[in-house]
Design goal:
Structural class: mainly alpha
Order of helices and strands: HHHHHHHHHHHHHHHH
CATH superfamily: MFS general substrate transporter like domains
Radius of gyration: 21 Å
Number of domains: 1
Helix content: over 70%
Number of strands: 0
Distance between the termini: 17 Å
CATH class: Mainly Alpha
CATH architecture: Up-down Bundle
CATH topology: Growth Hormone, Chain: A
């Protein structure tokens, strides 16, 4: 088995640059979806339910993308065709989604939702699915191309670009408001500041993805076989093991890291769902989405998410300096927990920025460390993509569970959305405790 070649910083940068554009789209979705559906008329207790279908689709799609891309060896590459296809669909949906409120769908339909909310819901499903289709190949390409010695650095670069993209996406609404684009709209319609944010985000998404598509050369089946100690036939066409069989032979790292993921992604689902309402209530004293104050809080939600992204960027630079990845993982999650819990009590719009800055440490670790630990344990397998696709379920499943429980927990905590941020902090503490169970083991 031949060692994979060492990559330069520029090569690792090019490998993940498209992730910058993908994350702009993801940031726009996370920071504005609750704001969009609240504006369309959703009750606060309904908000978490709008987040169920996207991760459910991710659980269905990601393992298939992994399986199909493991078997795709063509002139365009192995993972890159899926990267491009996902980006194209995401661009189309990003143009449609923020226009949901402009459609003449005022009457209540199934489950008490009006037509605009149903249109927005299905647009959200396709947006989240296509973003995940575009996002997953970046993680797989690092696993395919980067050697074990450089993998932590490569995923840290990916985390850096990811958070830089988040920073841009989060700030778009307040930037467009600052240059004079309207931040309020007739009741039930989405403000132009949000609409233009999605338009610009879509343009940047496709530009960045095309850059990586052109700059990166994936291994041929023969090269991949030589670097992974398998035969060319195994690399060209993986054996037909089913997902159940693969899970039976998954390394322990898959399951123990997945447990940590459960707590982490549940916490961040609560953050994405309830931050706008928490900031509006705590810092502006507003609960009505039709008010200018609530929409200002919606813009400020993008600002604090941007502050979180800055914290993530800085923490991504610190991660490689830790000698023990598990220690880094636990410290990062505990730092994020302190941020969430303090955010639940913060009543000043500037003070709360400090809280979200601390949560950036957890986000940076979540983006880099699980995949570093897992892909190192998958060395020598011809099922890298399938395992990463299945591992995506440890991202999707906790979001589904959290979304299903969100309305009930909100009611139990006194219908105060800021309390959901405290719940998120408690979940990250449980995640940090679970890190102790993580062990690196090689796939069978």
């Amino acid at each position: 088995m031949t060692d994979k070649p060492k990559l330069s910083f520029a090569q690792m940068w090019n490998l993940s640059f498209g992730f910058f554009g993908v994350q702009i789209a993801y940031a726009l979705q996370n920071a504005n979806i609750s704001r969009i559906f609240a504006t369309l008329g959703a009750d606060p207790h309904q908000l978490s339910f709008f987040w169920i279908l996207p991760p459910l689709m991710g659980m269905l799609v990601q393992p298939l993308i992994g399986k199909w891309s493991d078997r795709t060896w063509c002139r365009l590459g192995r993972r890159k065709p899926y990267l491009l296809a996902g980006a194209i669909v995401a661009v189309l949906v990003m143009v449609m989604l923020p226009n949901s409120g402009s459609l003449d769908f005022s009457s209540r339909l199934l489950l008490g939702l009006n037509g605009a909310m149903w249109f927005g819901l299905f647009s959200l499903i396709f947006l989240d699915t296509s973003i995940n289709v575009a996002m997953q190949p970046f993680k797989m390409m690092v696993g395919d191309i980067v050697n074990e010695e450089q993998k932590a650095r490569a995923y840290s670069i990916q985390s850096l670009l990811c958070n830089a993209g988040s920073l841009a996406g989060y700030l778009f609404p307040i930037f467009f408001t600052w240059i004079g684009i309207a931040n309020i709209a007739p009741e039930g319609e989405i403000p132009d500041s949000v609409i233009w944010s999605f338009y610009v985000g879509a343009a940047l998404l496709i530009i960045c993805v095309l850059y990586t598509f052109v700059k990166v050369r994936e291994f041929t089946p023969e090269e991949y076989a030589g670097y992974n100690g398998i035969t060319a036939s195994e690399s060209g066409e993986t054996d037909r093991q089913g997902f159940i069989t693969l899970l039976k032979h998954a390394p322990k790292t898959f399951w123990t890291t997945g447990l940590v993921q459960f707590f982490c992604w549940s916490a961040f689902l609560f953050m994405w769902t309830y931050s706008t309402g928490a900031i509006a209530g705590n810092c502006w004293g507003e609960t009505n989405p039709a008010t200018a104050g609530y929409q200002e809080a919606g813009n400020w939600c993008g600002v604090v998410f941007a502050v979180q992204a800055i914290g993530s960027i800085l923490w991504a630079l610190v991660i490689p300096k830790f000698r023990n990845l598990r220690t880094c993982y636990a410290v990062s999650l505990l730092t994020g927990a302190a941020g969430f819990i303090s955010a639940g009590f913060a009543h000043g719009q500037y003070i709360i920025c400090i809280s979200y800055f601390l949560t950036g440490a957890a986000w940076a670790a979540m983006l880099a460390l699980p995949f570093t630990l897992l892909t190192n344990s998958l060395k020598g397998t011809s099922h890298m993509g399938e395992y990463l696709g299945l591992f995506n379920c440890t991202i999707c499943l906790p979001q589904i569970v959290a979304a299903l429980c969100g309305g009930t927990i909100l009611h139990l905590t006194g219908d105060i959305q800021a309390h959901m941020l405290i719940a998120a902090g408690i979940l990250l503490i449980l995640g940090a405790i679970s890190v102790k169970a993580v062990r690196t083991a090689t796939v069978k």
